[in-house]
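dumping this here before i forget
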Amino acid sequence: MTAPARYVSVFRAGLFAGHVAVVTGGGSGLGRCTAHELASLGARIALIGRKPEKLEQARKEIAEAGGEARGYACDIREEESVKTSIAKILADLGRIDMLVNNAGGQFAAPLEAISQKGWETVVRTNLTGGFLMARECYTQWMKNAAGKGNAGAIVNIIADMWQGMPNMGHSGAARAGMLNFTETAAFEWAPVRVNAVAPGWIASSGMDQYPPEMQERIRSLPRLAPLQRVGTESEVSAAICFLLSPGAAFISGSCIRVDGAVPNAKISRPIENTTPAAAFNGFHLAETPKVFK
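structure:
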């Protein structure tokens, strides 16, 4: 069977026609997948990332699938870089209707082994950078647009940090902060809608970034989920697109978990299900992480 030439979304064609979406971390992983889906639904995409070559590859892919995207090299941790990038996007594309605050990163380490520099680097990436991007999209465009009846929407990507994140405490603290920021911004910036999506274990390229000693642990993850599998990038993207859509017009300050009910598993009660739930994968360029091959 020949693979489709473009994203196969569950949402109607043209849903985001005429809109501009900013996607941070858009050159790989969840950001790349989400950018493809938004473009397939008619949005023009501004891809944000630190590596121009990754952004250019994603831009070419989207163009080949019939969409429109531009890349903007930006370190979201640096305030002036963010301000300049948002201003450039507005100069090029004329508006910003949607922000997907996806960029992030962390490394595995117990709390006692994390240096101040390591802690601050992860917090700046996963919390400060997201705040700066959201603030600039809001102050440079969304605030005034909302006053004219064109309120935009922001989706912040956090993580499965419920009950803590052992061996990734810096990331857990930052992601929890991002959830609280989401709830505050939903109040202060209304009618702009601000929500969060919390992915759990997702089969994405990020899984291949962890050291070899973690590979066996990663391969064991499906057995630890009530749905008996890891998620797909498309399942996260679908949640993001829903929160950006008119169907979520009365949803703000909320968080959608995309995690296969992993936080609901209890040590005192073994998982009885052994049948993996059916998966959705609409991303025509999705690849299985090497760790699962």
